[in-house]
Amino acid sequence: MTQQTRNRVIAVVALLVAGAGLAFVAFGNLGENLVYYWRPSEMLAQGERAYGPTIRLGGQVQPGSIQWNEEHTALHFRVMDSEAPDAASVLVRATETPPQMFRERIGVVVEGTFDQSQVFASNRLMVNHSNEYRAPKTDEDVKKMFEEMQKQDATTAAVGKK
After folding, report:
1. How does DSSP classify residue 47?
2. d(Cα 108, Cα 98) in Å, to the nearest integer?
3. What percentage of the chain carries pLDDT values higher than 90?
4. CATH number for the domain running over 34-161
C-alpha cells in the first residue's frame, strides 16, 4: 500500500468516526431532551400526549386567579391564551418565588410538567416584559408612572402575603 493510499484510508476512517460521533450526539436521546412550547389551548388539544414531557407553557396570567398557599409554599394561578372571556386556561402550581414583576395580565412562560389532574407543575416561572425604556415627557407623566409603580408594589406585596 502506498503512502497516498494509506493517507486516504486514514482520512476516510477519521471522517466516518467523526460522522458517527456527530450522529450520536445529534440523535442520541433526542426525544428525551425536547422541550415543547405551547399555549394553553395547544397543550389541552394534545390530550394525553401532554402528560409527562417537559413543556414551556406561554400565555397571560388570568385576572383574579392568583392565590398563595402558605402551607405548601406554592403559588397557584391560571395561564390563559388571551383576554377573550372564553379563552382556554390552565391551572399552574409554581413552587418558586415569583419575579417581582409578576402580576395579573402579564405575559408568562412557565416550564414544568402537566399531569392527569389538569394541573401544570412549574419549576421555572418567567415573565415577559419590554426591554424598552421611554422617559416620561412631562411632570404629569412622571406622577402617573409613580402611581402605577406604587399600585404594582402593593399588588406584589399582597401576592406575597397570601
Report:
1. G
2. 11
3. 32
4. 2.40.50.140
